[in-house]
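Report of the visiting student (M.T.), summer placement. My assignment was to run the structure pipeline on a short list of targets and document each run. The first record concerns RNA-directed DNA polymerase from mobile element jockey.
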Amino acid sequence: WQEHSFPSCWQQAIIIPILKPGKEPSNPRNYRPIPLTSCLCKILEKMVNKRLIYYLETNKIFSPFQSGFRQGRSTVDNLLALETEIRNAFLRRQHTVAIFFDIEKAYDCSWRFGILRDLYECNLRGNLPIFIQNFLKLRKFRVKIGNELSDFFTQEEGVPQGSVLSVTLFARKINDILKQLPPSVKGFLYVGDLYISCTGDNMHFIERQLQLAVNKIRQWSSFNGFTFSTDKTSCILFCRKRRLHPEPEILLEGQLINVVNEIKFLGVTFDKKNSLSSPT
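After the run finished, the structure tokens were exported:
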């Protein structure tokens, strides 16, 4: 810590690919990478992570609308916020349109320089940012299938999978995306699970405001190295009189965002009539 050294063996990981349930095994994208790293390194990471979280929380760096892995916060905060907005809209005979974003390879694509820059801009100094810089650089991994080990690969960008420190660093990086939203659009994060919503009487106004928000989010994401999946990003219109209104048309990367009748968010399924299913 004092000498600013980080053992090279702690920068290495063995990746065990686990097939996702019900997926085709011939497609490499259908495997979830499970990293095995040094136990001693994990202990140190937890200690450093506590210091980092303490600094970020005491200096109020995190948005109040980021609920992921924060003391006194949980998925319930975001679920209740969405459910309350929908219920209030129904009481006022208004409409709520929500967009649920899917970030492609969120941890793998996190921009390391951007993470360090953000920490510097929030006045983090001393041994802590130096440790984080050494923690992120020169990361290597091997893939293990059965008893076979691949050669080492270098991870040029991103934060290490399976690290508690990576979660906090990613949450800090994605935090500023909420600052891009216009006043009429709400946004909530649970680490990288992002949704935005807009409520009103006029569907054209809602569409314009959400399109403006999506454009600003896309611009910020492009600058910071994140990409949203156009296939997995979804939009839903909450309205008890939906037949009277056309589906919202909002573009992401030049493609219409898919409008669905129900969406699973943080383990709870919402449908267009605001009927909730049991958490799964």
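The first helix runs from residue 39 to 58. Residues 247 and 253 are 19 Å apart (CA to CA). I thank the supervising group for their guidance throughout the placement.
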